[in-house]
Design brief:
By secondary structure, this protein is mainly alpha-helical. It has a domain at 30-106. Helices cover 64% and strands 7% of the residues. It contains five helices and two strands. The protein has a two-stranded antiparallel sheet with strand order 1-2. Helix 3 (42-65) runs antiparallel to helix 4 and helix 4 runs antiparallel to helix 5 (86-107). The radius of gyration is 16 Å and the shape is globular. The protein starts with a strand and ends in a 5-residue tail after the last helix.
Length: 112
């Protein structure tokens, strides 16, 4: 279930992942962006996150044909957009699942 709070969109999963930082848990990039920009009014935060995330995605697409880490930059742009936009959060989850599936295929031992 997706809801809204003053810091942006939340899900039921957020309640489980928002434990004490001293407990050694690591927060996701969207959560860190939300907390870093929490002092901004919501419309300003929305515009800042939109501009920075979109710029990273455009730069990542350009880096697919130019030298640079294109896929990583695209992933970072979507992660930043996920701090404010629910559609980007869903896309980020799909990208993580696809990356995990691809990684498991790469790490699998070749059959003789």
């Amino acid at each position: 279930m997706v809801g809204m709070d003053p810091n942006g969109p939340t899900t039921d999963d957020d309640a489980d992942s928002s434990s004490d930082p001293a407990a050694g848990t690591r927060r996701s990039l969207p959560e860190r962006v939300r907390s870093a920009l929490g002092f901004l009014p919501s419309p300003v935060r929305w515009v800042v996150v939109g501009l920075v995330g979109s710029t990273l995605i455009v730069a990542g697409v350009a880096m697919l044909v130019l030298p640079g880490p294109g896929l990583i930059t695209i992933f970072a742009g979507v992660a930043i957009l996920a701090a404010e936009f629910t559609w980007a959060e869903i896309l980020l989850r799909r990208m993580k699942a696809a990356g995990a599936a691809t990684w498991s295929l790469v790490r699998r031992k070749p059959r003789p």
